[in-house]
Amino acid sequence: MSPELIQYQNANQSYDEVIKNFIVRQKEFQRVIDDILITKDGSSFQHYVFVGRRGSGKSTLLRRIQAEISTNDKLNHKYIAVNLGEEQSGIYRLYDLWDYVIRDLNSIGYNIPKIDFRLFKDDMKAYTKALHQQVISSLQIQKKKLILLVDNIDRVLDNRGSQEDAALLRELLMNFKDIRIIGSSTVMSEHFWRYDMPFYEFFSIKRIEALTLDEVKKLMIHWSNVKNLPEIENLITKYPGKIQSIRMLTDGMPRTMLLFVDMLINRPEQNGYNYLQLIVDRATPIYQEKTFPTIASTK
After folding, report:
1. Is residue 35's pLDDT more than 90?
2. CATH number of the domain that residue 93 is part of
3. pLDDT tens across 75-133, in order?
4. Which residue among 168, 184, 208, 230 is the one 20 to 30 A from 158 at the CA level?
């Protein structure tokens, strides 16, 4: 099997490729897009967080929403999408978040002037509001609304580490109808369910469930066609029990299924620790970092 089958960086794909390769999670995608389409100017709207395990397709879903906003004529004349990727290690406070947004907008020609934070050294809340106002003003000049896509939004909230920041973010989102957040999270963070937290019942939480057997087959047929690997479709036809086993073993997580499909087609005779080591090595850097030391320590 070509190594290109096992890849996770959908951010490197063009919008056309993202749209073409988006096979599952269609209901979740369509629900959000339909909601955006029917939202009237000045009216209240819902912010979303998709909660699902690592490898369940959350990042791909956010990227698909970005592609739709950027290519759909009914949306791109009114909205601009900024996608803050999975690893936003530099976001510690709310002003960092707005700084990232400004950088992204400037990269597409918004030309937002830089504010000297030293002028606000004694009042970082005022600095945060000044950055936010820059974003709002630039959007209004362009007659656009912002769809802010935040992968691992729970980490962003945790990094900010200040309920004062969280309360300010909620205040800004409620008072200005120019920004809608659509995020993803691997956990049902306390930020979303604790009644004493600023974002209690603020987001509409949508769970990313395991793929059904029919969805697994549909996804694998797509892999077979796109990568010109008829062996995958042959697996579905000749060994339906193996497909069901893959779904059960991986809990229907697309990323993990890739590894098992590779095992069945390319290395049917390989087993034991050496193969497990190879699988971990083929996984994403995050998976390798978190998992391999544990495996190695138990060898």
Report:
1. yes
2. 3.40.50.300
3. 999 999 999 876 565 777 889 999 999 999 999 999 999 898 888 888 889 999 999 99
4. 208
State the number of CA atoms in the 13 A half-sphere of 236 facing the CB. 16
Phi and psi at residue 185, in whole multiples of 5°? -155, 145
When mean pLDDT is compared across 12-26, 99-113, 205-219, 226-240, the lowest value belongs to 226-240
Q: What is the DSSP letter of 202?
A: T
Enter the tokens of residue 285. Answer: 């850097």
In a shared domain, residues 115 and 259: no
Question: Residue 5, exposed/middle/buried by CB under 10 A (0-12, 13-18, 19+)?
Answer: middle
The one-character DSSP state at 12 is G
Phi-psi region of 25 (alpha: psi -120 to 50; beta: other; left: phi over 0): left
Give the residue from 130, 145, 141 showing the smallest Cα distance to 176.
145
